[in-house]
Amino acid sequence: MNNNLSWIDEAYSKSIDKVIKLSKKIGVSFPHVCLDGNYNCEAAHFWTSGFWGGLLWLAYRETKDESLKTIAEEIEKELNVPLHEFYEIHHDVGFMYLPTSVINYTWTGNKESRKSGLIAASHLAGRFNFKGEFIRAWTHRVDPNSTGWAIIDCLMNLPLLFWASKEINDPRFKHIAIAHANTVLKSFVREDWTVPHIVSFDPETGEKIENLGGQGLGPDSAWSRGQSWAIYGFAVAARETGDTKYLTASKNIANYFLSHLPNDKVPYWDFRTAEKDKFVRDSTAAACTASGLLELSTLLTDEIEKTFYYESAIAILKGLYDNYSDFSNAQDAILTKGTVSYPNNKHVNVPIIYGDYYFLEALGKLHGHKGLF
Ligand code: GLY
Description:
Blueprint: H1 6-26, E1 34-35, E2 38-39, H2 51-63, H3 66-85, H4 93-108, H5 111-125, E3 128-129, E4 134-135, E5 149-151, H6 158-168, H7 172-187, E6 198-201, E7 208-212, H8 224-241, H9 244-259, H10 283-299, H11 303-323, H12 353-366
Antiparallel strand pairs: 1-2, 3-4, 5-6, 6-7
Helix pairs in contact: 1-2, 1-12, 2-3, 2-4, 2-12, 3-4, 4-5, 4-6, 6-7, 8-9, 8-10, 9-10, 10-11, 10-12
The structure holds glycine.
Glycine (GLY) binds near residues 47, 153, 215, 225 and 340.
């Protein structure tokens, strides 16, 4: 491995500079994808609405630039609207309120932020299906058939429940997180250590019905971002519980991911894609996996394993920095070529906000900081 790691400092400071520059352009906003060089803006209840606030907090942590904090706090006020309106709320409240309200409270002691985090956790806990022991993902508005659907992404919402349990010294939230994680182990994780995007359960009996392809190629495929959510999500579950079965899952799903990467370290949108579709990449899966591998590495005691996942994370970040980043003024985003949903031809090979978020989070970890999840 190349021991000249000065590119890490370079990537970190250039990414922070880009966040500062973007903050002056978009201010309080809910960017999702960057089209023709400009980030769009979604509604506050959209699942990605916490990532821009998260990026601002990550940049604030390093620079102490008060203008970044002010925008992040304004974003939080906007996020309180869907929280209290309730009807548009879905399981992604972890993605929305962990890198905003929870982190504000953790770093500044803001009591209103604490309350928002706890309300979000209650909404998430309220989506638990007792019979099937899973957290329901979406609402009827997203899909009318989704009453019994759980999705792999939800592992990344569980840290909100673990946080709430610690915060109010009450294990109820943690019990739900553990029950959901165990259902994912049982009903999502296959023998080859891959996972589907969606599993459909009978919401009355709790029986598993089938896997669904969702944003992946199909029910038996390995959608790359889904593998990333599993790697990072199981690592966090292991961190929060100390249970080694989550560690084993995170490691093995990571091994599948790493051994199927193309040479440039950025995965195809689905590891089982047809040859003709290999031009479709997902930089967000690379960035999320890199940050997840750094989390995983901190939990391991075996030096060889620890180093393997740490260096694998660095190799992915280097791949992103060398070939999938743009620090010019040509685009608002940092990374290029993320893919929202290739089966729906929705935002293919475009910059996506959570790619930027996990890239900066991972670089922050390499500078001695913790992640926000
Ligand atoms: N949570 C939806 C996605 O990863 O696109």
